[in-house]
Amino acid sequence: MISNMFEIMFRVAVFIFGIILYYVDYGIASVCLIPLMVFLLFQKKSSKFNAQGRAIFITGCDSGFGYQLAKRLDKKGFIVFAACLLPEEKGAKNLVSECSSRLKVIKVDVTRDEDVAEAKQIVESNLPEKGLWGVVNNAGISNWAETEWSTIQDYQTISDINLFGSIRTALAFIPLIQASKGRMVFMSSISGIIYFPATSMYSLTKKAIEAFADCLRLEMACYDVKVCIIEPGNFAGATNIQREKTADEIWNKFDDEQKKRLNRKIVEYCCHQVNKHLKNGNKNSDPVIDAIIDALTSPSPKARYLVGNVYEKICVCLFTHSPTFITDAFIKWDELYQKKRSLLLA
After folding, report:
1. pLDDT tens per residue, range 114-131
2. List 23, 26, 202, 223, catalytic entry
């Protein structure tokens, strides 16, 4: 209710802004803007979406966003195919016990071609009358470390799941989504837009999935298929996607040469700061779930859904509209960078 009120107020404000432009003699600008303002002001909200007879396939439903989304879509009347890595564990069993018979749990490891192909067969064999309406590429993991603390295997592991797992799933299910003129949703992150030290492993997978989804959106437009990207901020408290690390855990992975060269105090301070950041993460997943549902059900879904707090949205605006030297300076003012610098100079 509140969000609807703010949306109406925003549309009215934008329309008034266009009128003001006209009267203060910005004629050309107002002529260009006023039609857009009228459209925004009088655009009607979508009528209630009919979920009956439509199926959604979701990866990564063992916990987090995928788990919550599967439950919400089931309540809305969709046929839900919930792909879980561990179908015998608590998350999958809770879905079966708490949801209707419309929800089906499927064992899927998105890094395996065989699992994805088998999941597609199961979905095809159990499609309702209106077919597969949506695919939500949600399966993912997180990891953090400074680049020189990491191995190529660390990068490969996270890429196999976050990036190639999503691509593998999309390739398999594109024909079914084309047939229904449905939706393909990709889970990205604010880390796919902005960059911070010690996040290169995670950020590169999210930046890459954004590029993949952008290209796919343009290709699928010819088939009346909508492709959407979800960009959550820090929702670590809602998903537990990143467990807390200890300095010992990181330090003990280093070889003798690294231990001589690297500064353990920097490792300890980084762990402290990252763990504090994780604890401060949003514990309510509803804003992200709402965005995914809008992407699946709106007649005019957004290409991107940025879901975060005010600070995170300001950071995105800064990083997307400022020269690199300004954004780099912004990072260098951060406490973590300053502390690392002082330890290196000590």
Report:
1. 999 999 999 999 999 999
2. 202
